[in-house]
Amino acid sequence: MAPASSMLTTDNPVFAAYLFYCSVLVVKVLSMAALTARQRFGKQVFANPEDSSLTPKGKVKYDDPDVERVRRAHLNDLENIPFFILSAFAYTMTNPTPWLAVNLFRAFTIARIVHTFVYAVFVVPQPARAIAFFVGIGVTMYMSLVSIAYFSFAA
Description:
Blueprint lengths: L3 H4 L5 H31 L1 E2 L2 H4 L6 E2 L4 H28 L5 H24 L6 H27 L1
Parallel strand pairs: 1-2
């Protein structure tokens, strides 16, 4: 087992890729707030009376289907991306093959971006969203199981 200090450096291509893809995912999650705001202003529907006064035709509405679709996509990110970040960190510490690790990180990131596009930006019928969702779940599950196996023998 390689020492952890040598793995947690940008000289380690797996850790460098981990940092890059996690940063992309953080920007992606934060951008969902802007996407929600764009939808709210475009439809002129807001969750609070003080916000509805920002536009002349603004109204308070809690169940607009388009706004709720974006909010559900954001919630789905919040339910999946933090677990990926934790699982990917543990996986990084297993000293994986760089090619496989980088492609797992890449696949998850692309899957989450595609999930948002087909769910909240350009709505595409199923199974597009399900495929993107399950690619992400599969990557996270694989990395978690590899980490469990690796660290169960180290314990």
